Amino acid sequence: MNLTVIGIAIGAFVAFMSFQFGAWGFIGSLIFMAIGAILGRVLEGKVDLRRVWDALSGRRSSS
To answer: What is the C-alpha separation between 33 and 50, in angstroms, rounded?
Structure first.
């Protein structure tokens, strides 16, 4: 699947959630999609949560 097809599928899902469940369904689906994306990146090893936490807590800069 290319990125265009994935983008269309995500747009269709979010549109369905907003039509079916209103604004809260739309917001809820976006939140859960973001959580899923972050968890996927962590499981793939593309995001190190310790480094993110250190940057957010001020122990280390992001560069």
So the answer is: 22
For the stretch 10-46, pLDDT in tens is 889 989 988 999 989 889 888 998 898 888 888 888 8
Q: Which residue spans within the chain are E strands per DSSP?
A: none
Look up the pTM and report it.
Answer: 0.66
Whole-number Å distance between alpha carbons of 29 and 23: 10
Q: How many CB atoms sit inside 10 A of residue 49's CB?
A: 10
C-alpha dihedral sign at 41, 43, 45, 50: positive
> Phi and psi at residue 49, in whole multiples of 5°?
-65, -30
DSSP symbol at 2: -
Cα end-to-end span (Å), the chain: 33
